[in-house]
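Q: What does the predicted 3D structure of Shugoshin C-terminal domain-containing protein look like?
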Amino acid sequence: MFSLKTMMASKATKQTSAAASKIKNKLLNTSSFFKVSLKTNNKALALALQAQRKRSSQLEMEVMHLQKQVDALCFELHLVFLLQLLILNNFRSNALQHLDMVADLFSDSVRISLNTYLQFLWHIDIFVTFW
């Protein structure tokens, strides 16, 4: 039938073929495992990226909201400052006006006292000259 050489060659070929098949199956299995692993990992990364983008968007909206609040509070603070400045200017103006009125009263009273004194002296002078 077959010669010994042919059988040996055939057996060696079968062994080589079987080893190649094992390696090929192992590579395919390993390759598919890596593919599944990479696919799962990519999906997890995509979900994490999506969640991160959503969180980033929420934080940006919160920052904008807080910035609007800061602007509103700065505006309100400026209005309060202007109102206080207006009140202080009003107090200052009223105080100056009242001081002028007091000065007028004092100068009038000094004038009246001086006039009264001069009249008194004049009367004395008349009285003295009369005597």
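A (community wiki): The structure tokens above were generated from the sequence. The two ends are 188 Å apart (CA to CA). Confidence is low (pLDDT under 50) at residues 127-131.
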